[in-house]
Amino acid sequence: MSKPPTAADVQRLQADLEAAIALHQKGDLDAAEAAYVKILERAPSQPDALNLLGVIHSERNRNEAAVELIGRAARLRPKDGAILNNFGRACLRTRRFEQAIEALERAIAIAPEVVESYGNIVQAHRAAGNVAEATYYIEALRRVRGGSITADYEQARLYSDLGDKARARALYEKLTREQPGFSPPWHALARLDTVTPGDPLVDGLLAAINQASEPSAALRLLCYAAGKAFDDLGEYDRAFDFVLRAKRQDPFTYDSARVQASFDAHMKAFDAAFFAARSDWGVEDETPLFIVGMPRSGTTLAEQILASHPDVYGAGELEFVSQITYRAVDYLRSGRYPDAVGDFSADTIAAFAFQYLRKIRPLDPRALRITDKMPHNFQALGLLRLMFKRLRVVHCLRHPYDTCLSCFTHDFAHHHTYNQSLESLADYYTRYRRFMEHWEGLLDGALLTLQYESVIADQASESRRLLSFAGLGWDDRILAFSETKRRVATPSAWQVRQPLFSSSVGRWKRYAHRLAPALEAIPERFVPAE
Question: Which CATH number does 256-526 carry?
Answer without folding.
Answer: 3.40.50.300
